[in-house]
Amino acid sequence: MASSTEAPARSAFLGERWHRPASLVGLIGLWGLAAVLVGDALFPGPAQVAGELLRQVAAGELLFHVGVTLGRVAVSFVLAMLAGCAVGVAMGLWPTVNRLADGLLLVLLNVPALVTIILCYVWLGLTETAAVLAVAINKTPMVAVNMREGARVLDPAYAELARVYRFGRWKTLRHVVVPQLAPYLLASTRNGLALIWKIVLVVELLGRSNGVGFKLQLYFQLFRIDSLLAYSIAFIVCVLAIEFAVLQPLEKRISRWQR
Amino acid sequence: MSDLKLAIRAKRYPRHDGSPVAVFDDFALSVPAGQFLAIAGPSGCGKTTLLNIAAGLDLEFDGDRQLGRLAGGAAPAIGYMFQEPRLLPWRTVAHNVELAMGARDDAGAAAQAWLARVGLPDAGPLYPRQLSLGMARRAALARAFCVAPDLLLMDEPFASLDEATADDLRQLLREIAERTGGTILFVTHNVDEAVRLADRIVMLAGQPAAVARDVAVDLRPADRQDPEMVRRFRDRLREPAASAAVEPEPAARAVGGGR
């Protein structure tokens, strides 16, 4: 193969691996500068927010509310994945199921999240079940659509292989079906978490008396922007931690055979 | 080992326009236990369909398939070397072989032993995409034999290999087959290959496919290695085959042949 001749490597500004941290530091710097220029209590600077964050962590309150929210994220995520996979795979495998469920899926995909949340609260009361269910119902159709694509491209050649060598149900699922669905599962997980942790906050804001969403509403009403930002940052850090500690290693493991 | 009796009254495929095309019509084939039968014929004449029916993968035909049960009534083990190696790309080579064996305490060691036997002692931890086609075919051969097949089905397993590699693998197949002694159904479009390997050759022709020739290969092992002897035997097969394609010999339909 003819490779294009590489231009002589430019001396990278600061070295490549420092670019991300540098952009973060730059962002905080800009924020600080803007806060000084605005000079208003409603636009607190990074130092003030960091102080508030530490105070809230020390009081134990922040960790409690973040924990509650993460718990809701986890439960509704599991529910949505289970339901979405079951429905999606069934739709991908059996055209009849697909034709029956397709219209419903299309409707559910286009119902605004807020409508589902309000209806759940109205019909089931302001309960934990209603909150978690509302989130799960919002997410399930997206998982189903994704998994339907995955099930449609399952290679029948490998199914034949599993039959000839008598893999049985469990072994076929584990070694033949799931590895083929893995990229779709991972994509669903990624999109799922991104969507769910946003909806969970709305659900908490509308009908719960704990969790990050509840606190955000409280501080909104009190005009305590430093506390509001402290909670937001704590939550964003959690989401990034899940991305780097769970999702990326999982992705690496799943795609190991492709390298 | 098991004997195999196929009696296909009708096997049809839909054409592009939906009209059915008959692949087999009143077709019978009987393979005595322990026989190495090669099935030769032009591509598209239904050889792979025949193997899939023999394997029990294709059940959509009108007719009967009988695979001799083992002493004690156990279902016979089937090994199938598909046209492409068909290794699970997300499992290591060793794991691919191991999976075919089912629940056995020594499956790992047995898989390694089979890999060594087919000339891949170090390929166990590799993923299939790291293998050349020849190596992947060897791994597929190990997988097919590791189940101690009572019936071994092979679909042009040495096609699209360079002649030296194909020859190595033929030699290997012949050696292992002689020692393990199962029934083998070997599909090829290469008549020389059939002459070198098989105890009996069935040539298919026409549409729907019919048996054009059914002959025992009575060459000594040494003669099978001699290109001149192989060529002479092949020519003997071809001469009457031209007329036989038009008017099949009545005897060819009959069960039998072999040793």
Automatic annotation (TrEMBL), chain A:
Matches recorded under SUPFAM superfamilies: MetI-like (SSF161098)
InterPro entries assigned to the protein according to its UniProt record, in alphabetical order: MetI-like, MetI-like_sf
Keyword vocabulary terms for this entry: Cell membrane, Membrane, Transmembrane, Transmembrane helix, Transport
Compartment(s): Cell membrane
Membrane-spanning parts: 21-43, 63-91, 103-124, 228-250
Residues of the ABC transmembrane type-1 domain: 66-246
Organism domain of life: Bacteria
PROSITE patterns with a match to the protein in the record: ABC_TM1
Pfam families registered for this protein in UniProt: BPD_transp_1
Signal sequence, renumbered to the chain: none
CDD domains in the record: TM_PBP2
Protein name: ABC transporter permease
